[in-house]
Amino acid sequence: MKIVVCIKQTFDSEASISLNETGGIDDQSVIQIVNPYDEYAVEEAIRLKEKYGGEVTVVTVGKENARKALHQCLAMGADHTLLVNDPQLEDADSHTYAVVLSTVLCTMDYDLILCGREAIDTSVSQVPSRLAERLDLPQINMVSHLEIVEGNVKATRDIEGGSEIVESALPAVISVQKGINEVRYPSLRLIMRAKKMAIKTFSLADLGLTMDDVAPYLSVEEYIFPEPRKEGMRLKGEVNEVVTQLIQHLRHEVKVL
Amino acid sequence: MEEQYVEDLKKTIFEWTSKCRICMSCYTDCPLQLSTKGFLTQGPTGITKALYYGILWNTLEGKDAEDLREIVYNCTTCGGCVNRCKTSACGIEVIDVVETGRQFLIEKMIGPMSEQRSALESIYKYGNPYGEAPEKRLDWLEDAEVKRLPGDKAEVLFYVGCTTSYEPELHGLARSLVKLFKFLNLDFGVLEGEVCCGDPARSIGDEFLFEEMKTLNVEKFTAAGVKTIVTASPHCFNAFNKKYEELADKFEVVHYTEFLARRFEGKESFFEKELPYTITYHDPCYLGKHNDIYEAPRELIRKIQGATLVEMEMTGANSLCCGGGGGRMYAEMKEEQRLADMRVRQAQAVGADMITTACPWCHTMIQNAVRDLQLQDEIQVRDIAELLSESLGL
Q1: What tens digit of pLDDT does each residue of A101-153 get?
Q2: Residues of the domain holding B311
């Protein structure tokens, strides 16, 4: 079974984000990681490979630093990796990613395409669907359990109040959800070893794409931080006094009662 | 043919384990026998044999792999079994087998426990297992004037450690040590850009991450140009002393209890402020069982005016582990009864109104147990350094 996993490198969820002089997000000072939802996709791909045989190829669109993310995937057990890196992709949006990824995938042989449900940086959650549309493939999103049954894929999706099982022929695009598996830990030794493995790199020109093909639909006007949360108020005293104070405050200051 | 590295791990596990006579003497010293249902795999021989047969029969997939992981990561690495095997049996280095087993499980991507993964990744990314920002590591100092190495120069490096640096409940320990060092007119400093000693990586089984941290630390200590390194944690102390061959003969590494016991010898009269507590001392495993340091902490406690030192039922070399070692600080292991809870009950049984210890992890585990048992009004948890500082009126 040939599986392709599309991943994105994102900011570490524990990192504190800062803006650079041009008002963009400073990606130099922030540690970057494999998008956690994409890690589940990589893990699922490796588990399917271990069960049914085949190979796993991980594809990403990113800068030079994205090699680190690919090294991690190789250390986890991916067989091949592919990076599309081009300065013209600086302002990429979901449309851009979908165009680039679908172009790469057109040159490849695959049975299954796996993605994370969304990237934790922008949380737009559009790439899997756009990719499926461009490749004219069936898609199942937010999958929390996956099986291969007689050459078809059987996917479980969590829905409100229950779950639904969707079956599809292969190839298909599947985006996975937290809980589908427990991601393995690649030791530093395996990451070091992975650094010696080859990463195929392409530019837009290598893929036969022009700036017009990948021009984003979305443009960012400005990045601003949310207003810091206002300090809370601590009421002191016996229960009766505190409740009275609280009611007074809600009635006269906040004016909600 | 598997890589030589994995073959060597297997060989180490096989060599040690095949020497075991299954006399079971070690079970009398294993804390897991008290905190679990007491199955054979919840004790030293069972853990090492489970590893042995798991590898021999290659039952390393699915549920078998999960079971083996749970068995091997349950060990607190307290060292009780190692000492017992030395005196009563054939001297097997059980903790080496367990740690090698964890390295093997990580190689096979069976380990670590899922919660431990972020601790290891954080050490790699941020130099501490908590995912905290490196630039906030010295925030506990607040406005205190302390030399910052390697920019400043000093004779003694106070190596604070990750938990003491980032856990607000332990900032009292760090600040007390600074006050005590100043009281002693010590030429000391803290390290700008201090990173984890690597002990959690080693005990969870990522040996290469440990080696990476070791290289970083050796470079930093050499650049700092100090003679002595004083640690707040017995785990950092043990790692530097026993696992950093590069430091041998270059630096003296001391845990703060031994360091202070030496410096305060004959200075009992300075401890003027009476602290009328009935104090019991919890021996941290990595100070006691691993390094035979039992007396120095007690000497320090005895200097405190008005305090009465009482010993718990399990004390000294027979002390009960708090359950936080061996990477368990970062994972919730299944226990019938928590070791830290038992320890608090033991303190209660001898009428102590204060538990002192000299390890940030023991402190955290025991403090949490006191809170969970809702005994905050009856028992305080303080570090020895805090008590000394208070008794000196600092």
Answers
A1: 999 999 999 999 999 999 999 899 999 999 999 999 999 999 999 999 999 99
A2: 268-391
Q: pLDDT value at position A247?
A: 94
Q: How confident is the model at residue B71 (pLDDT cuts 50, 70, 90)?
A: very high
CA count, 13 A, side-chain hemisphere, B96:
16
Q: In this structure, what token pair is assigned to residue B388?
A: 């000394």
- Please check the confidence at residue A73 and state whether its pLDDT lies above 90: yes
> Which residue shows structure tokens 């190495």?
B149
Distance CA A241, CA A246 (A): 9
pLDDT in tens, B145-187: 999 999 999 999 999 999 999 999 999 999 999 999 999 999 9
Task: With beta carbons less than 8 A apart as the criterion, state whether A256 and A250 touch.
Answer: yes
Question: Amino acid letter at B152?
Answer: D
Do B127 and B103 lie in one domain? The reply is no
Question: Which domain CATH number covers B387?
Answer: 3.40.50.10700
Residue B382 and residue B297 share a domain: yes
B235 and B359 share a domain? no
| Chain B environment of A14 (Cβ under 8 Å) | 122, 126, 131
pLDDT digits (tens, 9 = 90+) for A226-239: 888 888 888 888 99
What's B45's domain CATH number? 1.10.1060.10
Indicate if the pLDDT at residue B367 is higher than 60: yes
Q: CA torsion sign, B232 to B236 to B237 to B240?
A: negative
A234, two tokens: 């601590």
Same domain, B177 and B241: yes
Per-residue confidence (pLDDT) for residue B388, from 0 to 100: 97
Q: Which residues of B touch A (CB under 8 A)?
A: 5, 106-107, 109, 111-112, 114, 116-117, 120-122, 124-126, 131, 133, 205-209, 212
| Rounded distance between C-alpha atoms, residue B382 and residue A195, angstroms | 46
From CA B157, how far away is CA B191, in angstroms rounded?
Answer: 7
Phi, psi (degrees; rounded to nearest 5) at B87: -85, -30
Count of domains in chain B? 3
B124: which chain A residues are within 8 Å (Cβ-Cβ)?
Answer: 188
